Amino acid sequence: MQTLKDLIGESKIFAQREVLSPHYTPEKLVFREKEISSIEKAIKPALEGEKGRNLFVYGRAGTGKTSCAKYVISEIKEIPNTKARVSYINCRMYNTRFRVLNKVIADHMPNYARRGYGTVDLYEKLMGWIEEDNKILILVLDEIDMVKDLDDLVYIMTRINSEIRAGGVAMIGISNKVSFKEELDPRSLSALNESELVFPSYYSDEIYEIIKARAEKGFKKGAISDEILHFIAASAAKEGGDARLSLKILSKSGELAEDKGKESVGMEEADEAVKMAESEIVYEVISSLPEHQKLVLYSIVLLAQSGGSYKKLTDGRDTYLFSGEVYNRYKSIAEGLKRAPKSERWYRNYISELEMQGLIASFDSSKGIRGHTKLIKLLYPTQKTRAVLERNIFGLERGKEKNDTGESKE
Q: Residue 265: what pLDDT?
């Protein structure tokens, strides 16, 4: 039996475990030079003291959006005599206008007593701080779509630029969801004056190079082979080119080998790590979906399991569903939960978002299949996806099930 002393002793597998973390920012970000350059060009006017310009950054999870933003932030901090000040804010934690303003104040005016002040007080304090010597605040809002009153936040930040004489605010909004802007008020949208940047998914050979560089620092020499790295890269590429997933698999492989007392990672550990990481990623992605996207995905899961009013299409291995049937099931479930179903236009946006997250695939059918329609396929095991959704939507305990309308089956 291992003792505590054994557990805290020197690792046989890892050299620098922290290098394998998705939160670690390497000195060089490979295959993202173009995207980094685009972010740098977007904030260049702010660094030169001009009024703020805004940038929205999109891409699937694990495409390097946050890493690139943090890389540019580190560059800004090394520029001497600049009036630019940066606040990086994780909007999953700071998810209201007040919390964002409070965090900005805490970043740059730590001696300012925050307790008891309202939004207007924080707003005026921020304006005064910017205007006192013409500062430019570069506000990086990671997972910006998680802000509950985003319309109000955007309005406040764009209003600063119109109210003060000099200085200003430049926003960089990062999101996995391309369509989130459509929920903004038209007046907020018109004031944004933003440009957009889309991060593509990584290819298998790119993921291999990324994890190889991490493994060279993170693992001891000989602890992981090139064959294992290629296997991990291919597994992550198959799941949509998610570099974050590949790093989770890489780290978990090492942990499993270490727990078994091995001095190197074998295919058995890598394969086990792939399965464990996939489940974690699916849970994280589904948990972060807005409510109505969860309901659309739940409709797809139910139809994939049990069929529906139209005959399912199958090629013997995969099941395809008609988009119209999914929408009808979604409306039924939403109404059963006393939620107002969204329009077909919003439904199409949700399908695009779910596809971007790698949860489903959709494509137009050939002519002759109920006219010209869209077919949808679930990309993850139905039972596992259903279980995750039911815990998220209904808070359902294990051992209970819902019927196809969302009601409990005791």
A: 97
